[in-house]
# Entry
Amino acid sequence: MIGRAFKHIALVTRHKWAVFIHCVKCGIPLRGLLHDLSKFSPTEFFESAKYYHGSRSPLAVCREKKGLSMAWLHHKGRNKHHLEYWVDEDCKVPPLVPYKYAVECVCDKLAATKTYRGKSYTPDMALAHFRRYGNKVHTNERTLAFIDKVFSDLCELGEKAILNKKYMKATYAAICLTESDTEKEGLS
Ligand SMILES: [Zn+2]
# Structure
């Protein structure tokens, strides 16, 4: 167990570092610093260490074995960069994920793809994974369209073109915001 706990800490640290670098490039360094801190809470930490895998999420492994992951239920309810945080089936239109969390979400998904795929990582993997699993979440359509667009542009234009504040603000404004929202968010 202790060996797996250390491996888990190493993996989380590597992932958090990658998310931080992405977030800095996108102009949201604070989100990068605060990213995924709940992973160090007992509910999340012990389950992840127990089901440590290395090239897959331990929560997915736990889900397969036990039928549920308490760590995930704990995590998604506390971390606004997860689309699942914003799911509310009782809303007529699911809430739009605010700018900084939508960008953090992209940084997270990209970093997770790199962390788990290691040397076999290629830029198209983030989009493939999102279209297969990520966009099945019952969240706001515009948020989903934003992430799809960013990952499509990643394939076509490369990482440098998308991981920056200017690109993120313009893309979010174009897809997610109406004119009055743009003024409210100060993105114009
Ligand atoms: Zn997270």
About this structure: Residues 36, 75, 79, 81-82, 108 surround zinc ion (CB under 6 Å). The chain has a mean pLDDT of 93. The first helix runs from residue 2 to 25.
